[in-house]
Design brief:
Helices cover 7% and strands 41% of the residues. The strands form nine sheets. Strands 2, 3, 4, 32, 33, 35, 36 and 37 form an eight-stranded antiparallel beta sheet that branches. Strand 14 and strand 15 (183-189) form a beta hairpin.
Length: 535
């Protein structure tokens, strides 16, 4: 973004929002870290038709059906991570039944599954909790077990604690919801199966917590960070359980996961309107851990403005005829009307996944377009509860070639609209959240002044057969450096996550290491996803 435009926007921001980069240094020290084009932190100027373009994961197969008797159609809130050679998956198992005007619910539980490849999953018999007279199930924490700790399963979040100072018997952590007072209760485990509370009281209580509330060790900032459900400008009505504010996300930090620093803050979005956000899915991106990636769920109620918000019985379902034609044309109208008899929003709301990123944990660039759309209309889609994305995506073998890898995302389908909910996998290239993109007519991006360490520049990029790109290295004033100019640059074309940039066949940039420079990317029908200086 040109400096003049940034200055003008800064004036507007005072009244409307907060700049993500208020403390931006005059020269940005990249060191040898990987940078992704997920925000405009590094951007000084666009030329031609270059732009940052949000990418979208591709839907793949259903990897897990929550069809066990103790699971059900409202199974959600998945936590997933790679642990050595094993993938671990945790989720809240729950079932919702309904008749016009009322909901019946089963007891909920924290369940466990595992996989060798992230695609084929098994539900091991843990033998810990009884269901219908048998312990042959994958329930790690049942409703009675949680109650014995003065907690409920709620929206559980499980993670591997990679703090180098953590004791071995606390390698795995989880958060459940305490009853009195309402709040986040931390649990610990040595094996990821047997969990016990870390305290006898909730450690975070300023919130609503009716979503997946999570925390993790942030290695870049040497602290634990939590994110949880909060209502901005209101709360949840205790009688109707209807929100009276806007569903939002709150955060805080801690040195030990028990004592919190009192730095609670609502997330700030630089250029996004107020929107209802379920979940948050925030985590350090493992290939660039200074970036905190979030996958919140956008909640959109498509009912006609002014319609009554609460239905009281079957006769009142006639009011759904006021729904807009496209809402009534979506799959499973009868199911929507039945759910609307409890609360209209259960039938009229739709959820989808967004993408956002932060460099400080509080100020986020939230892309306003959907990251994962509900997709082609079919049963179990375009409803309240679809596309709750598992926390977090993981690297798996590529669907094209086992020698390649990609990112796998996992999201709910069939929530409260089928006999059981399922988990569908989606895939995306490594670092492929957003790209610097330009059409065949061309475009350029010039970075702000940076310093780096290393001797080679690697790109993750893709082009058409006729397209391609070059990289020019400039001095901090914007003049091309001899030996690294556009005319001396070798054009790159292809599609790879790791290609070394060259100028007249030479790749060594170590003579420029530690000196302020700018990068000028020149593209034609190409996308650049990330870059990294390295040895």
């Amino acid at each position: 973004m040109p400096k003049l435009l940034r200055s003008i926007l800064a004036i507007v921001v005072v009244a409307e929002t907060v700049s993500l980069f208020a403390d931006e240094p005059p020269v940005i020290d990249l060191g040898a870290r990987r940078e992704l084009f997920v925000d405009e932190y590094l951007v000084d100027e666009y030329r031609g038709k270059a732009e940052l373009r949000l990418q979208h994961p591709v839907p793949r197969e259903i990897v897990l059906k929550h069809d066990a008797p103790w699971e059900g159609n409202a199974t959600a809130y998945h936590s997933l991570f790679k642990d050595g050679d094993k993938y671990r998956l945790y989720y809240r198992a729950w079932n919702l039944g309904e008749s016009f005007g009322s909901i019946t619910t089963s007891q909920d539980s924290l369940c466990y599954a595992e996989s060798d490849d992230g695609i084929h999953w098994t539900k091991p018999e843990l033998g810990l909790n009884e269901f219908d007279g048998s312990t042959a199930n994958n329930i790690a924490i049942s409703t009675p077990m949680a109650a014995s700790f003065q907690a409920k399963v709620g929206g559980p979040a499980v993670f591997r604690d990679d703090n180098p100072a953590v004791p071995t018997d606390e390698r795995y952590k989880a958060f459940l919801i305490a009853d009195e007072p309402l709040g986040m209760l931390p649990f610990k485990s040595s094996d990821g199966i047997h969990f016990t509370p870390m305290t006898d009281h909730p450690v975070i209580t300023n919130g609503a917590f009716d979503s997946q509330n999570l925390a993790f060790w942030d290695a870049e900032r040497k602290a634990y960070r939590a994110y949880w459900r909060y209502f901005t400008g209101g709360t949840t009505d205790a009688k109707t359980w209807e929100p009276t504010g806007i569903r939002a996300i709150r955060t805080a930090t801690s040195s030990d996961l028990v004592s919190w620093n009192g730095d609670d803050a609502d997330l700030v979005y630089e250029d996004s309107p107020p929107e209802e956000l379920y979940e948050n899915g925030i985590h350090p991106y493992y290939r660039a851990p200074h970036l905190l990636i979030g996958l919140p769920v956008r909640y959109v109620d498509r009912a006609q403005p002014g319609a009554d918000s609460i239905f009281t019985g079957k006769a009142d379902a006639e009011k759904t005829k006021r729904w807009p034609p496209s809402l009534r044309a979506l799959p499973q109208l009868g199911v929507r009307e039945l759910k609307a008899s409890m609360s209209e929003r259960y039938g009229s709301a739709i959820t989808e996944a967004l993408f956002m990123v932060s460099r400080d944990g509080v100020n986020f660039k939230r892309w306003n377009e959907a990251f994962i759309r509900p997709g082609i209309e079919r049963d179990g889609t375009w409803n309240y509860g679809q596309l709750f994305v598992a926390w977090t995506p993981v690297e798996t073998k590529s669907t094209l070639d086992d020698s390649l890898t990609e990112l796998s995302f996992y999201a709910t389908e069939g929530y409260w609209s089928a006999p059981y909910s399922s988990l569908r996998r989606y895939t995306l290239r490594l670092d492929g959240f957003v790209s610097l993109s330009a059409p065949m007519s061309g475009g350029e991006l010039v970075t702000k002044p940076i310093v780096f360490s290393g001797k080679e520049l690697s790109l993750n990029f893709a082009s058409s057969a006729a397209g391609g790109l070059k990289v020019e290295i400039q001095d901090d004033a914007g003049g091309p450096i001899v030996g690294f100019s556009e005319n001396e640059g070798d054009e790159l074309f292809g599609d790879t996550t790791d290609r070394i940039v060259s100028w007249n066949g030479k790749t060594d940039v170590s003579s420029l290491a530690g000196k302020p420079v700018r990068l000028r990317f020149i593209l034609r029908d190409a996308d650049v996803y990330s870059f990294q200086f390295r040895e």
